[in-house]
Amino acid sequence: MRHAAVPARRPTTPTQENSVTTSQPQPQAATTAPEATITMPAPDPATTSTPAKVVLITGASSGIGRATAQRLAREGHQVVLGARREDRLIEIAREIEAAGGRADVRRLDVTDRADVTSFAEAAAERHGRIDVIVNNAGIMPLSRLDALQADEWDRMIDVNVRGLLHGIAAALPHFQRQGSGHFITVASIGAHQVVPTGAVYCATKYAAWALTEGLRLELDPSIRVTTVSPGVVESELADSITDEAAREAMRAYRADSIPPSGIADAISYAIGQPPGVDVNELVIRPAKQR
Ligand SMILES: NC(=O)c1ccc[n+]([C@@H]2O[C@H](COP(=O)([O-])OP(=O)(O)OC[C@H]3O[C@@H](n4cnc5c(N)ncnc54)[C@H](OP(=O)(O)O)[C@@H]3O)[C@@H](O)[C@H]2O)c1
């Protein structure tokens, strides 16, 4: 587990407001700097009702993942950030730590099952447990089916479906051992409706919805399961569109968008419910989106 410039922090004198329920971080070989001990600022009671949790976030280097990391860290949670652009993750972790939060970073490719497994293993080893995994990494290179962009179809399936499955497989043994845990899938409004140029993307998001619902039905109720389906959100997602016609169509479609903090707020809400309350689905669109 790579840590940002400032190592993971913990409160010196835990109080009811800022106590960390996870076991203390364990030093490990990959830790490059000694642990600093500082007093964490108490989480803002207006925005949190939960004790600190260890929250893994995939696709944390931009957009919704980044906003979720910042929001949850502000509430006092220990966030563990994964994505391929490690430089971005380090920058985000520095911002979080400068604001008094705690973040670990690790380069992560969700298409690689072993990589996702060790992402979870390293977090569990360091913090003693994993409370939440936000399976958020995703790509959206839209195009019409008759454009035959088969490589992009494969990439969407690899990241949006296999990546999600890898996240589930990595966290589930920890949740079962602990007798608690929370899966959060960032699906999409594309899990509920299909649009032209979006057939494959929507298929991956329908799959994400189905996998997450299947988890909910199969798992012990001690493990919570939430699907979050955003509408149009400001992010880098549309940058992955290479098809000129699809890119042009998306420009108009995405003109009305909401900030990623709107989705981070929804994720925070789901995490903040008492253990017996499972927020299964949240759909968050710009008010103007139909
Ligand atoms: N923005 C929207 O309008 C919208 C609407 C509905 C649903 N969503 C969903 O929200 C999620 C987040 O997207 P976003 O809107 O925040 O877009 P974004 O800014 O492009 O973020 C996507 C994230 O996924 C990561 N990622 C991509 N491939 C990866 C891989 N192989 N391994 C690990 N991480 C990978 C990217 O990091 P690296 O490139 O650094 O790896 C990035 O951090 C996606 O699942 C998307 O489908 C977004």
Automatic annotation (TrEMBL):
<dbReference type="InterPro" id="IPR002347">
    <property type="entry name" value="SDR_fam"/>
</dbReference>
<dbReference type="InterPro" id="IPR036291">
    <property type="entry name" value="NAD(P)-bd_dom_sf"/>
</dbReference>
<feature type="domain" description="Ketoreductase">
    <location>
        <begin position="53"/>
        <end position="226"/>
    </location>
</feature>
<feature type="compositionally biased region" description="Low complexity">
    <location>
        <begin position="21"/>
        <end position="34"/>
    </location>
</feature>
<feature type="region of interest" description="Disordered">
    <location>
        <begin position="1"/>
        <end position="34"/>
    </location>
</feature>
<keyword id="KW-0614">Plasmid</keyword>
<dbReference type="InterPro" id="IPR020904">
    <property type="entry name" value="Sc_DH/Rdtase_CS"/>
</dbReference>
<dbReference type="InterPro" id="IPR057326">
    <property type="entry name" value="KR_dom"/>
</dbReference>
<protein>
    <submittedName>
        <fullName>Oxidoreductase</fullName>
    </submittedName>
</protein>
<dbReference type="Pfam" id="PF00106">
    <property type="entry name" value="adh_short"/>
</dbReference>
<comment type="similarity">
    <text>Belongs to the short-chain dehydrogenases/reductases (SDR) family.</text>
</comment>
<keyword id="KW-0560">Oxidoreductase</keyword>
